[in-house]
Design a protein that fits this description.
mainly beta; 2 helices; elongated; 11 strands; 3-stranded antiparallel β-sheet
Length: 156
């Protein structure tokens, strides 16, 4: 782990404050992932309230634990992209259809409007967007259980 070229802390309001080595303070800093699906822990930009980048992190894992934990906490509070571990049921094999799934955030149900709302990304990764615009991720469709794979294949 290399030393970060900045300090990071929370202010009294819970917002992140970044201080550069030359003592310049940037308040209300927000972490933004460069590649949130393909490489979620690589390439993070820390931007100020105006959206200007004030720091860059090549890899989250390279940071010391306190910095990594602060950034991870902030990302979790801002992002909501549940990862599907299992497809429990699908109401019909035509669309729209109601899906019951198990995710890393608990059980969920959503309406799939059309097959075009399932987008293939890379290496078996799928992004499924529900009727409300919430995006679900399947990290590796080949790693799903057999029943889940069969249900999913009907829509691909």
């Amino acid at each position: 782990m290399s030393a970060a070229p900045f300090q990071l802390e929370r202010d009294a309001h819970g917002q992140l404050v970044l201080t550069t080595p030359d003592a310049v303070r940037h308040e209300a800093v927000v972490p933004v992932r460069a590649f949130p699906i393909a490489a979620p822990n690589e390439g993070l930009s820390l931007v100020d309230a105006e959206g200007r980048e004030v720091a860059w992190v090549d890899a989250l894992d390279d940071l010391a634990a306190p910095l990594r934990d602060l950034i991870s906490e902030e990302l979790l509070s801002r992002e909501f992209t549940p990862v599907i571990h299992r497809i429990v049921s699908v109401s019909t094999f035509s669309t729209p259809s109601l899906w019951q799934v198990e995710t890393d955030r608990g059980n969920a149900s959503f309406m799939l409007k059309g097959e075009e709302d399932i987008r293939r990304l890379n290496a078996g990764v799928l992004r499924i967007t529900d009727s409300h615009g919430i995006q679900f991720i399947v990290r590796d469709r080949r790693a799903l259980d057999r029943r889940s794979r069969r249900l999913l294949e009907r829509f691909l």
